[in-house]
Specification:
The chain has 443 residues and is α/β, with parallel strands linked by helices. The protein is 32% helix and 17% strand. The relative contact order is 0.11.
Length: 443
């Protein structure tokens, strides 16, 4: 496939993933698959951008209560109705990526004050002027509908009574950046990536409004939010006090070309003690730190806390972002385009690295689905796919997630559908990593 087609495919998947589970996204995916040439592909991409630009930043916010933090206004959760979505505008150093973006806000769904679900929203990434120009990241902080783990009515939701602090995403930096860029986006103004400050504002508000010691803390997120949860896991587990905690990340294994991974992380401005220890800072400053280094450090530092990945075997969005980064940072050793079989092989190597730690498990789903937990498929997915529905006695995703945090005397195990093979026999996409299958964590 020509490099131009790689970039076109990357653009399309990046943008359509920002319109999750919509008829438009499905129709565009079909149109793209049926396109016979570059001109048709460009038309599909153009239509996607036009639709995205027409979306009102106030979508899903018309009836949502909003509070603006200030010198005298603290936006106390005690004044918010239980189980209702609220928006908090923190001000200060928080902001979305462009000068023209609307002000940053995070979402709160009040529940029990001793139980917290701290969730990072997804929405692509922008690591240079080109990816920014192509619209590869969300630039508005739009709240999630009350679906998936946010659903307060579904009895199958293990976190329906938790207070939810949802770190909305509009910074394009996987919630980690703290940098002013040296480019200006046409018609959108100065570019700053302040995902770190945005998250910090949500953390500070949460600490003022929940119990000083939680009975349960769950850290999660999907897509770019999965990366955010991985990067923030160690600091959050240090900052909050709790009896039981878990980190369950959804749909990002962090598979990137080696030529660009560490450089992108460094240029986001994460090489500080706020997120990394001294050893990782040194590696970060050399442009060598990767998300796996950061997440594995968190796993090792918290041996009594369960860490878990939920991921598809051939996640199409993750594969396309790999292709996009590869087009930006050409490599002599990494492929320019990631096949499904190669993606699964690399994913299993990443998970295998974490699997060496007793407190890590995984839930691997057949297919190419990207993100489960912010959607209704949380309740229909099992390891056979998004509509498996637990047939044949299989555990559904929501049932598996309900085991987190894992309390003393209980256990959770890794789940995967397919023949268990050792690494030497990995081929295709139907297998499971033998080292992970049935792995059990019991604190």
């Amino acid at each position: 496939m020509p490099k131009s087609s790689v970039v076109l495919l990357f653009i399309f998947v990046s943008v359509s993933s920002a319109l999750p589970h919509s008829p438009l996204a499905s129709a565009l995916a079909s149109d793209f698959a049926n396109s016979s040439g570059t001109d048709e592909a460009i038309d599909v991409i153009r239509a996607t951008f036009e639709e995205r630009e027409s979306i009102d930043p106030e979508l899903n916010q018309t009836d949502t209560p909003k509070c603006r933090l200030g010198a005298t206004e603290k936006c106390p959760m005690s004044k918010m109705p239980r189980h209702v979505s609220n928006l908090i505008v923190p001000g200060g150093a928080s902001r979305c990526i462009y000068a023209s973006s609307t002000e940053y806000q995070f979402q709160v769904i009040p529940g029990d004050t001793d139980k917290l679900l701290f969730y990072f929203q997804g929405g692509g990434a922008c690591w240079d002027a080109l990816s920014s120009t192509l619209g590869a990241c969300s630039s508005e902080a739009v709240p999630n509908d009350l679906l998936g783990l946010f659903d307060r009515q579904n009895k199958g939701n293990p976190y329906k009574d938790y207070t939810v602090v949802h770190v909305l995403y509009c910074s394009g930096d996987a919630h980690t950046g703290n940098v002013a860029r040296n480019w200006v986006q046409l018609f959108k103004g100065k570019v700053e990536q302040r995902g770190f400050e945005n998250t910090r504002s949500a953390v500070e508000w949460a600490k003022q409004n929940i119990d000083s010691k939680l009975s349960s803390l769950v850290i999660s997120g999907c897509s770019a939010g999965s990366l955010g949860a991985q990067a923030w896991a160690a600091p959050l587990l240090r900052e909050f006090k709790y009896e039981h905690a878990a980190v369950v990340v959804d749909s990002y294994a962090g598979i990137f070309p080696e030529s660009g991974h560490g450089r992108v992380m460094k240029e986001f401005g994460i090489c500080t003690r706020a997120l990394l220890n001294k050893k990782l800072i040194k590696k970060c400053e050399a442009g060598k730190v990767e998300i796996q280094d950061i997440f594995e450090t968190a796993i090792r530092e918290n041996p009594s806390t369960a860490f878990a990945h939920v991921n598809s075997k051939t996640d199409s969005t993750q594969m396309s972002f790999y292709d996009g980064v590869a087009a930006t940072f050409p490599s002599k050793t990494d492929p320019a385009i990631l096949s499904g079989a190669e993606y699964l092989k690399r994913m299993n190597k990443v998970f295998g690295r974490y699997n060496a730690n007793p407190n890590y498990v995984s839930f691997v789903v057949n297919g190419n689905q990207h993100c489960f937990t912010p959607d209704t498929i949380t309740y229909t997915s099992d390891t056979t796919g998004i509509n498996g529905k637990g047939k044949g006695g299989r555990i559904t995703l929501n049932q598996w997630i309900s085991e987190f945090p894992v309390q003393h005397g209980q256990s959770v195990q890794s789940e995967c559908e397919g023949k268990a093979l050792t690494q030497k026999r990995w081929k295709g996409t139907a297998y499971c990593d033998q080292a992970q299958v049935g792995k059990t964590f019991k604190p």
